[in-house]
From TrEMBL:
It holds the Pfam family Glycos_transf_2. Signal peptide: none annotated. Keywords: Glycosyltransferase, Transferase. One of its GO terms (molecular function) is glycosyltransferase activity. Residues 5-165 form the Glycosyltransferase 2-like domain. PANTHER family: DOLICHYL-PHOSPHATE BETA-GLUCOSYLTRANSFERASE (PTHR10859:SF91), GLYCOSYL TRANSFERASE (PTHR10859). One of its GO terms (biological process) is protein N-linked glycosylation. This is Dolichol-phosphate mannosyltransferase. The keyword Transferase applies. It comes from the Bacteria.
Length: 237
């Protein structure tokens, strides 16, 4: 019986995904053996597929999107294919050491919370992050606070654990397939009175692909404003 489902969206992650998957399987084999890892290859054009398949584990399920459809789309599809009671979303880059996942699983298993999310800005967090990304993240956080009045410090950190039964209805309603998937998920969860906990995290940012640029920032802003307008329309109906 599968109890834990780890969903990993991957786009052009050939540089480190093999090593990270190996570390994840070693960790879960010992600590939480009733698990599956679902890797959604979101239209990668490098050797991501080859690197994933090089990890010899029958716990890994590989799914390939022919074209890039966005992180949100990958996470939603992975969620729909998952068999575990607890679903874990985690980035493919290897920024989050596996051992800390125990804290997120524990928060859900104690049945006090429906969603556990990483908070880079917690005083107990240890992050290795570029100044540019820190500035961008805090600006995005401020914009979200103003637009949505959401009392969450870090919507975008790429580590989250969810009680599948209590969140599947919320996941099905999330429309954003891209950068703002996490934000929309947490807004809808909050509005439906789901219990969310933010946990400190260790994050060692790899900076493999250059990080945030102006084009990405503007795209996120556009998606955020689109989300706000859509939620206002829903509230007015």
């Amino acid at each position: 019986m599968i109890k834990y489902s780890i969903i990993i969206p991957a786009y052009n992650e050939e540089a480190g995904i093999k090593g990270y998957l190996s570390n994840l399987t070693k960790f879960f084999d010992v600590r939480f053996p009733n698990y599956e890892i679902i890797v959604i290859d979101d239209g990668s054009v490098d050797k991501t597929a080859k690197e994933i398949k090089a990890v010899k584990s029958n716990k890994i399920k590989y799914i390939k999107f022919i074209e890039n459809q966005g992180k949100g789309k990958a996470l939603k599809f992975g969620f729909s294919q998952s068999k575990g009671n607890i679903v874990i979303f985690i980035d493919a880059g290897g920024d989050f050491p596996p051992k800390q996942i125990s804290n997120f699983i524990k928060a859900i298993e104690q049945d006090k919370f429906d969603i556990a999310i990483a908070n880079k800005w917690d005083k107990k967090s240890r992050i290795n992050y570029s100044l540019k990304r820190k500035i961008f993240s805090k600006i995005f956080r401020k914009i979200n606070s103003i637009l949505f009045k959401i009392n969450i410090s870090d919507t975008q950190a790429g580590l989250k654990a969810l009680n599948k039964k209590r969140t599947e209805n919320i996941i099905s309603k999330v429309e954003n397939n891209g950068f703002v998937f996490d934000l929309e998920l947490l807004i809808l969860a909050s509005r439906n009175n789901l219990k969310i906990i933010e946990l400190p995290v260790i994050l060692n940012w790899k900076n493999k692909k250059g990080g945030i640029n102006l084009k990405t920032a503007l795209k996120m802003l556009k998606q955020t404003l689109t989300l706000r307008n859509r939620l206002i329309k829903i509230s007015n109906n």
